[in-house]
Amino acid sequence: APAAETQAIGEDVAAIRDLILAKLKYSVGKSVTAASPHDWFVATALSVRDKVVESWLSSIESSKRTGRKRVYYLSLEFLIGRLLIDALTNMEMIDETRAALAELGVDLETLREVEDDAALGNGGLGRLAACFMESMATLSIAAYGYGIRYDHGLFRQRIKNGRQLEYPEDWLSFGNPWEFQRPEIVCPIGFGGHIDTETRPDGELRQVWHPGETVEALAYDTPIPGWRGAHINTLRLWSARAVDPLRLDQFNSGDHIGALMDRVRAESISKVLYPGDTTPAGQELRLRQEFFFASASLQDLVRRHISLYGDVRTLADKAAIQLNDTHPAIAIAELMHILVDLHDIPWDEAWAITQATFSYTNHTLLPEALETWPVPLMERLLPRHMQIIYLINALHLAKVSGEPDATGHRLAALSLIDESHGRRVRMGHLAFLGSHKVNGVSQLHSDLMKTTVFHDLESIAPGKITNKTNGITFRRWLKEANPALTSLLMEVVGDNLLDNAMVLEKVAALADDSSFQERYAAIRRANKMTLARLVQQRIGVKLNPDALFDVHIKRIHEYKRQVLNILEAVAIYEEIRAQPFRDWIPRVKIFAGKAAASYTTAKLIIQLANDVGKVINSDPALRGLLKVVFLPNYNVSLAERIIPAADLSEQISTAGMEASGTGNMKFALNGALTIGTLDGANVEIMEHVGSPNIFIFGLTADEVEAKRSQGINGQDAIARSPKLSEALESIASGVFSPDEPHRYRGLVDALTYHDFFLVTADFDAYYNAQRAVFRRWRDKPAWWRSAILNTAHMGWFSSDRTIAEYAEEIWNVPVTPPGRK
Ligand code: 26V
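^ thats the input. predicted complex w/ 26V below
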């Protein structure tokens, strides 16, 4: 670097060092000699936070001044992970801060590791919300994320004797340096009670809701910097408080516990994230969470709109509200309540405003995951909102009942109320009707929406369903997770890689360049060494960094088919034992993921992976040729370590069942080859990276449907495949569970007689695809060519692209791409 530039950096480093020291002393209250790594983490976080706040206040000011339309992203989950490296990266302070800390004898990597993950999400849906927040800031969209500040995020997972145990997560126990409490921003949230009809001065009737119970929503704001720090948005999370936290009279009369009852009841709303991610809990507390945050967020944004523009009727011009799945869909009824009951807007006008303001993203078609609420529960908890839903439904059905094809069957399918098993409100229908656009998260998923759950609704609103294929933020999933690869790529494409991911295409020209391949491979090898160290530390298993790292990390679900992967491991295990001296490819199967505490089968699958690993890893006959490891407590931070070290990415869901997947994108970007079905975004990944560079196998979504309609008995497939029958037989007979030989009898029986996820039907195709992977691995130049082409062609999967599409086609807001200063 030129001398002047070096000097400027030197001054920056000194200034950062002094700021960190000042934060340590005056904000943390510790001396250099007494400071723990966590104290240094807080001091460093506070120092970068100062820069963030500087830019944050100007962003807020500029949005006000320009009167720009705002985007509100309503999500019950934000799976953020750690923020220190993210904030330093986006504020372009990382090198200077690392150097400043080094001068103080402190290692930035150590500080990185002491930060607790913000694990306010279950999986894909929550992580997508976090990537979107970052991309909206990067594109200078004036956006707010709204959610719940859970005291306890997703449970911590421990594995004991191969079994998952759940422990409470406690991310706030050491404080949270990124958030600002806003004690002045409090919204009352009502529940229950009754409704009075009053006559307005103009003679019209008005419904007045008198809640029987009120809690308060308290705001906590976290600034979200975009790439290069030019624009900073706000993530506003609500915490629940009792209106009257202590009944002093009751306390004084000796009832010390009773005096705190209201407080416990109110605060339970934001106490803990629901850990199921497909089967709706259907519990009252969950509905209370949904209404709590939807109502607080709407009150807050309507108040902001009125204070800026004076008239609630212009809301749709100045606000776009995106519903992240149906979890916040009650917001549609809440906006109608606000407009009609509180602002005296006529119903039809209010409905037009509502539809023009809202849009809805669907994230799953699994029937058991589609939210419905029992009508009696709704009537008790939200009586006015239930009335509003009835009225929306009546007007909607009146409109369609005039049509010639309006059979009873069709009206039942279109109704907001499902009458088939007790009366229940269909939240997907409510979200669909109350929105101007509805989207799926991959092309295949969006197409399937039109033929399955939203088939009838789509026919009365053709064109409402659109596709917005998911994306990921390259700042976190490339630069922060894999800085060495990012530097190499920037040498080729220039240092605007994170401004415009499409420049990655330039890397394709080097796919066959042997010296580039070597450098690319060396980076992978170093990442694998780092992961091997971590695995050794955490579970005491030693990995060979030259083995093929075959990775399957995601929530544990039958449809994601971890069992298919385990079966292949067992099959190969038996083959190696039978012919130990063939030229086997050394391979490590890496699993990680959490199972919902109540999902018995998923927990059994975790145990199976652990049991199989235990036997295989300690069998000397294998000479280390195969290892199977299960890494406990999968979270965002662990993903950041595993993905850059992966050679093979397992994306093997039953076709038609994975809405998109986003892990698949993170792996391919970092140069892992994918073995996968034609499901979710895998289809589009194949189209971008080219079919020679991805290992696609198995039934297509159409074939799955056809096959299932013929029956899901696995016996034929098992009979046709000796490898499969042997693998199943050894699992069923207790080879991997000698202490309890019948442990997996039920699992194997289910695959044999009732194989809903078509594991047996796809086994041979999967097994053969794995052999094709082996052949490619033996041809190292061909392997690295494919890996490099994956990286080169993944630019389109940047969440910047996804967000630009939402901005243009759904929100109608302008975007400003980042640029070098
Ligand atoms: C449902 C429930 C039910 C009540 C308890 C809490 C809870 C939490 C989440 C869910 C729905 C989860 C749906 C989901 O995560 N879908 C995933 O969304 C990703 C982002 O679009 C997508 O990549 C994955 O394929 C899809 O499974």
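The mean pLDDT is 96.
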